[in-house]
Design goal:
The protein contains 8 helices and 8 strands; from the N terminus they run H-E-E-H-H-E-H-E-E-E-E-E-H-H-H-H. With 228 residues, it is α+β, with helices and mostly antiparallel strands. The protein starts with 6 loop residues before the first helix and ends with a helix. The strands form 3 sheets. A 4-stranded antiparallel sheet has the order 1-2-6-3, sandwiched between helices. The protein has a two-stranded antiparallel ribbon with strand order 4-5. Strands 7-8 form a two-stranded antiparallel sheet. The protein has helices at 7-16, 57-65, 74-90, 105-113, 180-187, 193-198, 201-205, 216-227; strands at 21-27, 45-52, 93-95, 116-117, 123-124, 132-140, 173-174, 177-178.
Amino acid sequence: MVEEPAIYRAVSDALSKNGLIARSGFHFGNADDAPSGPSGLGARSIILVGQAGTTAWPHFVAWRGRQTCGNANPLDAWSRGVIEKIAEEVGARAVAPSDRPYLPFQQWAMRAEALKPSPLGILMHPQYGLWHAYRGALLFDTEIQFPSLREAIHLCDLCDGKPCLKACPVTAHSCAGFDHVACLGHVRNAIGNSCMTSGCLDRNACPYGTAYRYAPDQQAFHMEAFAR
């Protein structure tokens, strides 16, 4: 068992071997509806696990190339395998965004990193922009230590032009929300091929975090999964 003060560092180091990152965390309070930890009782701490940019993509692609059977959700399967192995090493319970019943990952993420949603619904990160995601979490029975969290600047508040609401040819994103019917109709049609192969035009129009923009094949993978 890893010594408690070193758990966050141990998790971060283990995740980095697969291109994933520890996305901070928090302690559950007595008033929280905390999910169960490894003991079956309510968890006391959580570490969010995610990715940013392209660092995890080569690891996933290599893993996928070794699989002999198809998987409807390969990225979820790969992420779960990595996170569950680390959970065993540090005495935690692993959970994923695809678990049923669904867990409040969006709320957890905002609490852990003090982030806010962008006009596209994706949480805006002060460093990664829109090019990040959460792949799972580790739940602990005890209160673990976390690194100090800087106050996050919400970059969307500084953006006057909102180019992320102007690039889509069918105006799928607007102040009214996301029109998924219009988006699906577009990307499933030949006219939407550029979105399918190069990624969401609105997301790519965001001026922040461009150094972390997903590679074309990575964006195409996510668009294909969405279109299904």
